[in-house]
Amino acid sequence: MRTDSPRKARPRSIVIWTLVALIAAAGWSVLALSRGEEVSAAWMVAAALGSYAIAYRFYAKFIAYKVLKVDKNRATPAERLNNGIDFHPTDRRVLLGHHFAAIAGAGPLVGPVLAAQMGYLPGTIWIIVGVIFAGAVQDMVVLFFSTRRDGRSLGQMAREEIGPFGGAAALIAAFAIMIILLGVLALVVVNALAQSPWGTFSIAMTVPIALLMGFYLRVLRPGRVAEVSLIGVALLLFALVAGRWVAESSWADTFTLAPSTLVVWLVAYGFIASILPVWMLLAPRDYLSTFMKIGTIALLALGVVVSLPTLKMDAVTDFASRGNGPVFAGSLFPFVFITIACGALSGFHSLISSGTTPKMIQKETQVRMIGYGSMLMESAVAIMALVAASIIDPGLYFAMNAPAGVIGDTVQNASQVVGSWGYAISPGELAAAAKNVEEASLLSRTGGAPTLAVGVSEIFSDVTGDGLRAFWYHFAIMFEALFILTALDAGTRVGRFMLQDTLGNLYKPFKDVSWKPGLLITSGIVCGLWGYFLWVGVHEPLGGINQLFPIFGISNQLLAAVALAVCTTLLVKSGRLKWAWITGIPLVWDATVTLTASWQKVFSSDPRVGFFKQRSIYQDGIDRGELVAPAKTMDDMHTIVTNSTVDGVLTAVLALLIVVVIADATRVCIRHVRRPALSTLSEAPYIESQIIAPAGLIPTREEKEEVRDAVGAEPRG
């Protein structure tokens, strides 16, 4: 039965999409052709939103219905295996919120801010073009194939479809990278919430609010999504306002937590969120946080349109060609693509698309909205982060993102050093910028988050008045912590699924991801692993997860190569050879970029880039008995040598594992083309669906009629 019938375009539709295309083209033209004159950030927003709309309407629909052939009549794992724990048919609106919140972690907020070092144009091009043809495609295709395989994890799909050798490499690489990603995400949350009673109280309140929403939808008023959304948003807004009251009251000390205390709470929360039924805490909490995420980003876009701030950063800076930038070392190719990561293409997303989401999706036809649409939403977040970094004074940007060892710890030194790079800013301007947001100093506030907060406060204060600049700055810091935490809880649950799939190859009961002993054991192991690295990292500035932080971006992109290799293999084996280019071209690009970056990080003679070169310099310093900056003691010197060695070896091992996966996937594809009879697919058997649900957020006229017919007929399930 056809799942989508082509309709002749109406004149109104033609006019609308022509206008959208013209707006996008105008935005791109201004960004690309401007040389020296002032450029409004609104043009960047226009180019992005116009491109996203066209991609979703045409390219995503083509892939869903022409290539994947999604079938609304085929039952999903959520319907067939519904057990109320991990498998649970979830309203598409709630699931969209959960999926978006789960994939949107630190990457789209921090990566584009750091990449602004190269100028606003390279980042804009990659964020928009990358998401349309690579990131969103990966997320949707992985979600589709995992849904067809009972929600199997990425590594397990690789093992079943590529084979035990390449599959084992994929399983090991995916799980190792997952632990690194979770540890880094948790560290960002700890840094954002430490000594912040406002943020800690507001985020803590989202847990009981989510529990209330979960029981409301499950027990009190099933299906009343609009009602529970209004209740949840009202309570969330109250929690945000109350957070500031708490911070200014006698309760402030109660919610002012040390980093080590936050680690304990985060690990405990991650464990609980991983084992509770998905409808009870995880899905409603992520859905709730999506309102804040999307609301803030939408207000940012509106603020840009209203205030029309100018892009003060150069379109392309000199650092793009020299490769000696103070924010991160390395040339534009390949490192700007590695640094931006999640805003355009993220391997972490493939774990969510093959983790919680395929076990909750009601209809195959919803993979377009949830897989492709959510990634476009995250890319929009990345664009707004790049806008925020590009509208502030470039001198302030570099003073905030350059390490203290480079610019010193006084505004006078920072002003001189930043001025030598060609970006003039006076000591008074640096001091005033900190005073405006009620901070003692903004120097060397590295990591991207504070820079984004300054940009957010700049945009919002232009609309609401300069008196609220400090409020918006601290609001943005708290917003970033909430943004990232939602990726941590879903990621922990996905890590549990991955470990269960892996152990299930050795002991079959683990294959049942809702088997209580298995879920308790694997949740404990996953939380224990990332929790250990986080604990050490909080107590030792150069140890624990800090040791693995430098390979965060490369690990994420290497994981994307695994996902794209699995997708390409499945397209070939399922009879879609002529469409294999859809994931094959992004795979070739991602593998080229990431393996080049891996090679340079391991073998580069530049100590700021190459791990082993850095190791040799500090080892030579130890041998001479001399300290090498930024080390302050000989213990620091030894730690840096250890870190460089570990990072270099891990980067090389992960890159080798990805090469093995790609090579084995290529072998399987060639074998299938030559002898299709030898190939087998592990697809679940077809069972007709009894659920009626729209494919998109807004039901079409045909879908409304289908619902009315079902209501008037016998109940179908």
Rounded mean pLDDT score: 89
**Form type:** globular
Counting DSSP E segments of at least 2 residues, the number of strands comes to 0
Which radius of gyration do the C-alpha atoms yield?
A: 25 Å
Can you describe what's shown?
- The protein is mainly α and 717 residues long.
- It is 70% helix and 0% strand.
- The chain has helices at 11-33, 42-67, 77-80, 92-103, 107-115, 120-147, 154-161, 164-193, 197-220, 225-247, 259-275, 282-307, 319-322, 332-340, 347-353, 367-391, 394-401, 404-407, 411-420, 427-436, 449-464, 469-504, 516-539, 545-548, 552-573, 581-603, 611-624, 634-674, 701-712.
- Helix 10 (225-247) crosses helix 12.
- Mean pLDDT is 89; it is low at 1-6.
Short description:
This protein is mainly alpha-helical and 717 residues long. The protein has helices at 11-33, 42-67, 77-80, 92-103, 107-115, 120-147, 154-161, 164-193, 197-220, 225-247, 259-275, 282-307, 319-322, 332-340, 347-353, 367-391, 394-401, 404-407, 411-420, 427-436, 449-464, 469-504, 516-539, 545-548, 552-573, 581-603, 611-624, 634-674, 701-712.
